[in-house]
Amino acid sequence: MVEAAEVVIDVEGLVKTFDGRRVVNNLSMQVRKGQIYGFLGPNGSGKTTTIRMLCGLLVPDAGRGTCLGHDILTEARQIRRRVGYMTQKFSLYQDLTIRENLEFVGRLYRLDHPRDRASAAIERLGLNGRDGQLAGQLSGGWKQRLALGACILPEPDLLLLDEPTAGVDPQARRDFWTEIHALAAEGLTVLVSTHYMDEAERCHEIAYIAYGELLVKGTVDEVVAGAGLTTLTVTGPGVVGLPRDLKGLPGVDMVAPFGLNLHVCGRDRAALEAAVAPFRGRADLTWSEGAATLEDVFIDLMSRSRDNFK
Amino acid sequence: MSAFSRFADSLGRIWAMMIKETIQLTRDRVTLATMISIPVMQLILFGFAINTTPHHMPVGVLMQEESDVGRSILAGLQNTDFYDFKLVTRSEAEFDAAMRAGDILFGVEIPAGFERALRRGERPALLVAADATDPVATGTALGALDNVVKLALVRDRFTGAETATAPAFEIRQHRRYNPAGSSQLNIVPGLLGTILTMTLLIFTALSVTREIERGTMENLLAMPIRPTEIMLGKIAPYVVAGFFQAALILIAGLVVFRVPVVGSFGLLTFLTTLFIVTNLSIGYTFSTLARNQLQAVQMAMMFFLPSILLSGFMFPFSGMPYWAQWVGEILPLTHYVRIVRAIMLKGADLTDLAREGLALTALMLAAMTVAVKRFRVTLD
Ligand SMILES: Nc1ncnc2c1ncn2[C@@H]1O[C@H](COP(=O)(O)OP(=O)(O)OP(=O)(O)O)[C@@H](O)[C@H]1O
Ligand SMILES: [Mg+2]
């Protein structure tokens, strides 16, 4: 059990229904102070909806919980003061300049000297000399950077980042994550949703959500180990036609190409071995024992949950 | 936290919102252009329409007698360019047909025995029949007729100049088709209210829906600002814009149309501000009710139409059925038209206008209440 004082997000049994469809179902999660918590799941799985419930932008149909010690159902205002929420879609004012956007945020949060704060943020973000540029004219990477800058300007205690790096180049993503880690080191708690596996691996803890259900949570190692997947790696010229032959065989839960390799995974080791036995002898294939990756686990989770929902 | 610092915080957030809205307004060229072009356009259009001197009004004369007086009147009418003689006839049937067809807008009938009666001092009647389906046009022509005839008779010495006070004849008007007629004194005051209603409603009707459509609302709602603060911050910059428009129209009214401001300028400014804020609040309310910008504009239009028709600007308020008057009473334009007419033309003071001022205040508060209640602080 974690100590209560350390828990920044503590929610239980959250449910959200849109037009009779359960988009988030019975979701519970705890995030500790200073953690970077990754939130993963396929499109439409309810990540954005959950984040919105955490900062009071959506009212859950059922469930309860606290965010920064404030009740998410009744104290949305207090939560908003101390949370920086970066929306999935850029939602600063496109017809305002970088500086004007930052000053607006500063004034709304009643910071002293919003002008100086904006200047400092511009400096920190490396946006020097561009502060007069309209936000709408920035490239994707700079927009994300500005949005993050606006989020952290009021010095929040919790950051909720909804796919902050979607469509951003690798260098910018790396910079972004360096910044996030620096912020976490200062004591900021970060909940970040993403579709990138490498980003998931940079998180202290992750949660995987599909069809509104939180399927697994824990550290990356825990999640991979908990999945109990056996992964075989196949290489060689014969790999090309192999997925067609393997798919659907009993015991083979997933077949996925990784570059020149093929990952063949199964939850039941014996069944998997039995299924691939006929292919073991082929000269154009080399079989080896691989380690399941996070991606293997997620793809497997996704296909399983899809089966459950049919 | 003390009440004072809470209040200061609140003002600070409203201020932040105002600055943001003002910057956005100055970058929005289309809105800026609308703000200036609508009053200018309307003023130019109405500038021609409310030209009160008739020009080349088609006229017919029915001569029931051949007399010097008749000829003198005819010559007098011809000497101005107010009238165009389309018809001089002795046949009543022909005269009536021309009027029905709209070939003549009004006709002068010199009855048999007019000259004799005039010489005897019997104050004979000169009959004037007017097509009052266009009351503004015929009204002004009728007004001018009185003078023209008088001048002609004095010039030709049928009557003395002293008859200006007690004319030797009587002009008996017969307004056909629309006996009520209407005055056009109210056009500039009405125009002031109409232009403000039209533009201000649209400005704020777009404000919330625009944020929702552009996706910026999600960010705004995630920040610690209250619905009332958002509303006030969004309305305030447009008060200045409305002020600018009102000044433009008033100056044009003074300079071009020579409509004086008889009453207090300060009072007019004060009540105009109230009217501006009321309209902005109503527009803002639409913005919180509508799902998108198109719906918001449609709502504004639905509100604008009855405002024009039922406010007493176009048609006399007293002539409307009770239900329409009742609807008219809940339209800010109705009260404002009364206010502006009373101040500009009659020199009314605040005590005279307390009722209208209170009505505007009530409408403003009602709109603001609905807006704040209807404002969705969540994305549900
Ligand atoms: N306001 C709404 N009204 C109706 N349905 C909604 C609403 N918001 C979200 N949904 C639906 O809820 C489901 C979950 O949406 P959500 O945005 O939470 O998913 P997500 O995990 O963030 O997906 P993505 O990775 O694509 O961003 C989707 O099917 C979406 O269509
Ligand atoms: Mg999302």
Commentary on this structure:
- The complex is a heterodimer of chains A (310) and B (380).
- By secondary structure, chain A is of the alpha/beta class.
- Chain A has 2 domains: 4-224, P-loop containing nucleotide triphosphate hydrolases (Rossmann fold); 229-291, 2-Layer Sandwich (Alpha-Beta Plaits).
- Chain A is built from 11 helices and 14 strands.
- In chain A, the strands form 3 sheets. In chain A, strands 6-7-8-3-9-10 form a 6-stranded mixed sheet, with helices on both faces. In chain A, strands 2-1-4-5 form a 4-stranded antiparallel sheet, covered by helices on one side. A 4-stranded antiparallel sheet of chain A has the order 12-13-11-14, sandwiched between helices.
- Chain B has 380 residues and is an alpha/beta fold.
- Chain B folds into 2 domains: 57-176, abc type-2 transporter like domain (abc type-2 transporter like fold), CATH 3.40.1710.10; 183-379, no CATH class.
- Helices cover 65% and strands 9% of the residues of chain B.
- In chain B, strands 2-1-3-4-5 form a 5-stranded mixed sheet, with helices on both faces.
- In chain B, strand 4 (125-131), helix 6 (135-155) and strand 5 (170-176) form a beta-alpha-beta unit.
- Chain B is elongated, with a radius of gyration of 28 Å.
- Chain A binds chain B through residues 52, 55-59, 76-77, 80-81, 83, 85, 87, 89-96, 100, 103-105, 107-110, and chain B through 9, 12-13, 15-17, 19-20, 23-24, 27-28, 214-219, 221-225, 377-380.
- Bound molecules: adenosine-5'-triphosphate and magnesium ion.
- Residues 47-48, 88, 162 of chain A line the site of magnesium ion.
Average of pLDDT of chain A: 90
Number of helices of chain A: 11
Percent range of helical residues of chain A: 25-40%
**Largest beta-sheet characterization of chain A:** 6 strands, mixed
Tell me which oligomeric state these chains represent. heterodimer
What strand line-up does the widest sheet of chain A have? Answer: 6-7-8-3-9-10
Question: How much helical structure, as a percent, in the residues of chain B?
Answer: 55-70%
Low-confidence residue ranges of chain B = 161-165, 177-185
Q: What's the CATH architecture name of the largest domain in chain A? A: 3-Layer(aba) Sandwich
- Beta-strand percentage range of chain B: 5-15%
Radius of gyration of chain B equals: 28 Å
Radius of gyration of chain A: 22 Å
> In percent, how much strand structure appears in the residues of chain A?
25-35%
